[in-house]
User: What shape does this take?
Amino acid sequence: MKTDDNITSAVASVYEWIDSKAAGRTPCDACGNCCDFKQYDHRLYVTSVELQYLVTTLGPAAIKKMNDGICPYNENNKCTIHKNRFAGCRIFSCQSDADFQSRLAEESLAKLKSIGYKYHWPYCYVDLATGLNDLTEQP
Assistant: This one.
């Protein structure tokens, strides 16, 4: 099994774990407001293994550049990569308990970071725009 496949499988497991922990909490009503990072006044940070997961699951040609502060995968306030969305997207709900979300984010980051170490993948934690734009600029 290639390293990319191992990373994809491991990240998918973390995403399933996050979904199970978040189940039963105040769900996201998919309003799309938080996908407009400028308007919502926040940033989404992602790990290098999550970016690799996205490239592997969507394919390199589907990686979109982020230009205007809005997630490029948000179309008409709907997530076009919902099944493959990042940990932060799975955890955050504007109507949920901030302390719970913070604890879950810290645990999730530890799990994602350990994947990078296990498979010797360079670890970084960057805002979504930087991560996506770096991927789209690679040859």
Summary: The CA atoms of residues 7 and 49 lie 7 Å apart. The mean pLDDT is 90.
